[in-house]
Design brief:
It comes from Sphingomonas floccifaciens. The protein is 58% helix and 3% strand. Strands 1-2 form a two-stranded antiparallel sheet. It has a two-stranded antiparallel ribbon with strand order 3-4. By secondary structure, the chain is mainly α. It is globular and about 95 Å long. The termini are far apart. The relative contact order is 0.09.
Length: 514
């Protein structure tokens, strides 16, 4: 009698091997260099692609099961919020400016990440890395969609959320996150992995998601908290991908070490400058504060990052260049960013306001060495002017950093009364940067950064809808007088009034008395 043996169940490692390397094949009629043209583009040397190991050993069947469960829970919360008028539960309408910054500046980056990880899933030679990149691509698309679905509830009741993708490509302060990702996606595949998966996801992501999600919880926005938690397990895999990718490159060949170190230096600084917007949100836009930017930086970079780079030292990797500058600036950067937005709030899709006494006391407590000495009197003067009906506006356009594209308002590390200003020359032209970090990045790749699309330059050239601020804001798709209520008394008020003629809704007709 023939005995039929049941097939032995594969263990996790065997199953993962079948679903990754088991799907790979050796090309027969095309060379690998032609199939994967970007693999050697950056000078990275990889001798054994099979040495890549995914610590999670996650396969697609398990992936879809986990994600479906998270979706079910998330949309239950979103539905509950809509049915119970969750917008009425937030602490203060000012909190919505943080939500606007998130959907205008961060959500489009999730979609860009989705597209480029899909690109890596095609162009990385290693099967294990390709599968990891494919899963992250799907993750990023999901994050983009869930953020849009969650925040769309607020779009029914508040302005400034309606056309965020259009704004992301055009509005001046959104060129900061957009240029960051444009820079990363136009790099090679390994630099992109280092930039996004390591420098941003692993080193800096806690400084983005923890303040935003904790800030949402403190201010009654439970729907935003839920999509943050829904994404958190994905982020843990993304962070692991970044760390493992860097370790993989460092272990493959000693020649990779200086290349990777250069990328870490560059993308740490670019990510740090991008987080200026998050830092300002933490200290100024949350009615109920979670922690100060300085406290967050100490917790999530100085302590966690210090341990990380101590571990990577065995590969010859040191802490990023200019990390000491970022540490020294933590008492200044948020106040300087708020100053920029206060100056130009008549041209933004978010609001700013004068700091009240309670907020001033909190800032003095959190920044005892810098705030009272360098910033408080400025705020008091602005508040006095506003009380007299002379709210301060800057009547010009700022100079922008050629690399990070933040207006040039940062100060020298050793002199907070002097604007930090650096100049580089290339092709017979002069280019201005805000710091030694941005100057180093420009000088290393001037051909790339000399082509940067700078909003102020484009406005002066007439490429942004017209020559006046109202025309530019119309080109931005900002609903003037709705998204932005801060133009009254500004230098452009007369132009605004003329621009708004015929655009305001008609006044309701008076009902004749019976």
């Amino acid at each position: 009698m023939e005995v039929i043996m049941a097939a032995r169940k594969l263990n996790l490692k065997q199953k993962y091997g079948h679903f990754t390397r088991g799907l790979d094949w050796e090309p027969s009629y095309q060379s690998k260099d032609d199939i994967f043209p970007f693999a050697k583009y950056e000078g990275i040397k990889v001798h054994d692609w099979d040495a890549w190991e995914d610590p999670f050993k996650l396969t697609m069947d398990a992936y879809w099961k986990f994600q479906a469960e998270k979706e079910r829970k998330l949309y239950a919360v979103i539905d509950s919020m809509a049915q119970n008028n969750g917008q009425l539960g937030i602490t203060d309408a000012r909190y919505l400016n943080a939500v606007k910054l998130f959907i205008q500046g961060v959500t489009p980056l999730e979609y860009q990440a989705h597209r480029h990880f899909a690109h890596l899933a095609r162009h990385l030679p290693g099967a294990g890395l390709r599968v990891a990149a494919q899963m992250q691509s799907i993750d990023e698309l999901r994050h983009c969609q869930t953020q849009i679905h969650t925040i769309s509830h607020y779009n029914k009741f508040f302005d400034g959320i309606h056309d965020f993708t259009h704004m992301h490509d055009r509005v001046w302060y959104l060129s900061v996150p957009k240029s960051f990702f444009d820079d990363a996606t136009t790099a090679g595949p390994f630099e992109f992995l280092t930039a996004i998966s390591f420098a941003f996801e692993y080193v800096l992501t806690n400084l983005l998601f923890v303040p935003f999600m904790s800030g949402a919880a403190y201010n009654g926005d439970m729907a935003t908290v839920t999509f943050g938690f829904s994404a958190q397990s994905d982020e843990s895999r993304h962070m692991t991908l970044g760390l493992e990718a860097v370790r993989f490159l460092l272990e493959q060949d000693e020649a990779n070490v200086p290349i990777v170190q250069g990328w870490i230096d560059k993308w740490f600084w670019r990510g740090y400058r991008l987080l200026t917007l998050v830092a300002m949100m933490m200290d100024y836009m949350l009615p109920k504060k979670v922690m100060s930017w300085a406290e967050a930086w100490e917790t999530y970079y100085e302590q966690a990052g210090g341990a990380l780079f101590a571990d990577l030292a065995r590969y010859g990797i040191r802490e990023p260049k200019y990390a000491d500058v970022a540490k020294a600036e933590k008492g200044h950067i948020t106040h300087q960013a708020w100053t920029i937005f206060y100056n130009y709030t008549h041209a933004a899709a978010v609001h700013t306001w004068d700091v009240d006494d309670q907020h001033l006391a909190w800032l003095r407590e959190k920044y005892p060495d810098t705030f009272a000495q360098h910033y408080e009197q400025r705020y008091l003067n602005w508040r006095d002017q506003a009380d007299q009906g002379k709210r301060f506006y800057n009547n010009g356009l700022p100079q922008l950093c050629q690399v990070c594209q933040v207006p040039m308002a940062f100060t020298e590390v050793d002199d907070p009364t002097t604007i930090s200003f650096r100049v580089s020359e290339f092709g017979g032209d002069k280019y201005h940067t805000c710091s030694d970090g941005c100057k180093d990045i420009f000088d290393h790749e001037p051909e790339k950064y000399s082509q940067a699309w700078l909003p102020v330059h484009q406005i002066f050239q007439g490429n942004c809808g017209g020559a006046t601020v109202p025309e530019v804001l119309d080109w931005y798709h900002i609903n003037q007088g709705a998204d932005n209520l801060d133009y009254a008394g500004s230098p452009e008020e007369a132009q605004w009034e003329k621009w708004m003629e015929g655009r305001r809704p008609a006044a309701p007709m008076a009902v004749a008395a019976e």
